[in-house]
Write a structure and sequence with these properties.
By secondary structure, the chain is an alpha/beta fold. The chain has two domains: about 230 residues, Alpha-Beta Barrel (TIM Barrel); about 110 residues, Beta Barrel (Lyase, Ornithine Decarboxylase, Chain A, domain 1), CATH 2.40.37.10. About 30% of the residues lie in helices and about 20% in strands. Strands 1, 10, 11, 12, 13, 14, 15 and 16 form an eight-stranded mixed sheet that branches. An eight-stranded parallel β-barrel has the order 2-3-4-5-6-7-8-9, surrounded by four helices. α1 runs parallel beside α8, α4 packs across α5 and α7 runs parallel beside α8. It is elongated. The two termini are about 15 Å apart. Bound molecules: pyridoxal-5'-phosphate. Pyridoxal-5'-phosphate binds next to α10.
């Protein structure tokens, strides 16, 4: 007897038990190394996901007034919010100060002037940390690397020193050198850089806060082999060169590493084109649902809900009117036909939070699975 196939259109599917295992692993490492965690809300802002993170007593890293408002509405207290962003507007800074959030990460001398002016006007005393651009190269996609001199993020350490010399309300520093970093050597390099910066601080400066950002990568190639990222290795690498009194101050902002592997995007094959030369499967999902491949050429593992010994190489593409709307070529899949359901793996981070309104396509729903999903290979989507 054939099982009835139910598919009401594309959706995101989240494995909440896996999310909890990932949160637990991050907390275990953070307790071991004494780091405070702030989840980077930009990675995924779905209520069910972030509630689980908030209930685990992880703070939140926001990059807009909208994210601060969302975090407050979802139950984070203002004191657990840190606020970064290279282009904060006056209205956003005013809003953050009025809420009395935990920390503002200030990215330039000009922004610092505005923060001081508005703090005086609103009579608030929100703590400020300076975001330093350490001019450090890391190996990741150039579009998600943020710590080199030419990047728009943060200020030169010399500029930070000038601010410190003239003002007494700076409590520390923030650095974030990039995302999807898998080689721990880069976090060790960051640790060495921070050590040398700290050594240059004026003697009377009291360092109370050191946020070393996010950036821990996940395994997009073989997610099933590495579902839980290496939080221990990350935190251990960041401490390598720091003196013990500084280690105690470290806070971190993981985004992708917390939510990346618990989310999958499910879509259906609509048409097969160029069957003989370069078979291309056109789906009912694409760059509007998951932008990363079109934006950075990011590659996600794709599987299908059927077993077959034969496999074939497919280009897998989306439906919108852009040639860049593709999940890439050479995806090894069993022979596909119209109606097959494909699973795009590791789509929990920078997936639904980056979705587009382009072509006025419908916003797809999310499904939250609360019991452990069967193993990766056996997953059924309908
Ligand atoms: C300042 C800052 N902190 C944290 C993050 C989160 O990074 P990830 O998702 O790689 O952990 C980002 C991501 O771009 C960021 O810009």
């Amino acid at each position: 007897m054939q099982t009835q196939r139910i598919y009401n259109g594309p959706y995101y599917r989240y494995d909440l038990p896996l999310l909890q295992r990932t949160i637990d692993a991050s907390l275990e490492a953070s307790k071991k190394y004494g780091c405070k965690l702030f989840y980077a809300l930009k990675a995924n802002n779905e209520s069910q996901i972030i509630n689980q993170i908030r209930q685990s007593e992880i703070g939140v890293d926001c990059v807009s007034a909208g994210e601060i408002e969302h975090a407050l509405n979802e139950g984070w207290s203002a004191s657990e919010i840190v606020f970064a962003g290279s282009g904060k507007t006056i209205r956003e800074i005013e809003y953050a100060l009025a809420q009395d959030i935990g920390m503002i990460h200030c990215e330039s001398a000009a922004e610092y002037g505005i923060i001081c002016e508005l703090s005086e006007k609103l009579d608030t005393n929100t703590q400020v940390a300076l975001r330093i651009n350490p001019d450090l190269k890391v190996e990741t996609h150039e579009k998600i690397s943020t710590g080199e001199k030419h990047h728009k993020f943060g200020m030169a350490f010399s500029e930070a020193l000038q601010i410190i010399e003239q003002n007494s309300n700076i409590v520390g520093f923030h650095l974030h050198v990039g995302s999807q970093i898998l080689d721990m050597q880069y976090f060790e390099d960051l640790s060495l850089t921070v050590r040398s910066l700290i050594a240059q601080l004026p003697e009377d400066f009291s360092l109370e806060y050191l946020n070393l950002g996010g950036g821990l990568g996940i395994d997009y190639t073989n997610p099933q082999r590495n579902l839980i990222p290496d939080f221990d290795g990350w935190m251990s690498a960041l401490r390598t060169h720091l003196p013990s009194n500084i280690i105690e101050l470290i806070s971190l902002e993981p985004g992708r590493s917390i939510v990346g592997q618990c989310g999958q995007l499910i879509g259906e094959v609509q048409y097969i084109k160029h069957e003989d030369s370069n078979p291309t499967a056109i789906l009912d999902i694409g760059m509007t649902e998951l932008l990363r491949p079109a934006l950075y050429g990011a590659r996600h593992k794709i599987t299908v809900n059927k077993d077959d010994l034969i496999s074939q190489k497919y280009t897998v593409s989306g439906p919108t009117c852009e040639s860049s709307d593709t999940f890439g070529n050479n995806h090894e899949l069993p022979p596909l036909e119209r109606g097959d359901l494909l699973i795009i793996h590791s789509a929990g981070a920078y997936g639904s939070s980056m979705r587009l309104n382009y072509n006025l396509r419908n916003v797809i729903p999310s499904q939250f699975i609360t019991e452990t999903v069967s193993t990766y290979l056996k997953q059924k989507v309908a």
